Input
Amino acid sequence: MQKETICLGILSLGPRSGYEIKQMFQGPLSDFYSLSFGTIYPTLNKLQSGKFVSCKQHTQSKKPDKKVYTITKKGMAQMQENLLGDASSYIRSGNYGDQIKSEFFLLILFAKYLPKETLDTVLNERVLFLRQKFEQFKYDGPVPGDIKALREEKSISFIRGLAAALLDTGLTYMEKNREKLS
Amino acid sequence: MQKETICLGILSLGPRSGYEIKQMFQGPLSDFYSLSFGTIYPTLNKLQSGKFVSCKQHTQSKKPDKKVYTITKKGMAQMQENLLGDASSYIRSGNYGDQIKSEFFLLILFAKYLPKETLDTVLNERVLFLRQKFEQFKYDGPVPGDIKALREEKSISFIRGLAAALLDTGLTYMEKNREKLS
DNA sequence: ATTATATATATCAAACTGATATATATGCAT
DNA sequence: ATGCATATATATCAGTTTGATATATATAAT
Output
């Protein structure tokens, strides 16, 4: 999927600055996708030149100007067109361009070359890390307004539920099978 | 994890050509990691110059020479050192440099901008695709010798089991919750 | 007879990341 | 109070990586 479509899609959820788009990739979307500043800022400039987004500079006393981007009607139309094109090509190919690079799995693959204690510590750390993630996805308590609005999106609650289910399965499997690695 | 460590690790499972390393990333490892030819071939050359791997040219009549690389003692030592260093740094950081870029999840995130029938077709295709993968990981019947040897690796059977469990959970979730998206 | 796919290596433009630079504010420990 | 780390905010770029393409042949399918 093109970076333009992705930025437009995120801006369709509400106006945001480049910094705030990056924060989504570090927070709620961190398990599904990411883009770096080096991609986000140039893309936003390009979208602005093409009038797919508008930009309001919030001059802040003694902080850099905050540039808040809002998707335009032209941008909404373009995004939907791109999305449809992507979906159609996925249907034809039967794959989704999904890419996983998990260093944890590589480490497991080469587990026999690690000292037993090191492998043990790594597995403990991983279980702790996954448990934290699980709690994060399960958590349904009070959150700031903008995040609350996101949670009410059907698609986000679908994805959060799937992530929680997958993490739960992963954790249970690790606990039941980890001794098979040593 | 460095590309050198990854190639050495794969060669520690047995001698292989660059083409065959790539095949592992398209087959048994496709859900966990990938490297392109543009990375694999130069890495192999670099490892050969450093005597971390040795190379035998199998001259084939009217096909390009097949260069089969074998990991050396020096290479084994280097790989284990790198692996230990990586594991230690993962323990300190508490994360694993895992990276997921799932275009399917992005498409779901923006599902409300897709025509109902398109979303439906995409979800059907995805379920079919995941079911195929699931069967692949579950399959325990006869396979060629080199793949059979791989399957007997503890780490690979651990990973295959985890992959099957995760796919099963994902499929069940999709079937139970997909109507919530429309 | 032609097209598509598989084997096999190599290269490179284009894209992307990770790091760094710049500038300020805030909180926390010493 | 002074130093240190972290957070806000944008911008740039060297270095790495990918995805596509080139080359050459064999085989299977249409």
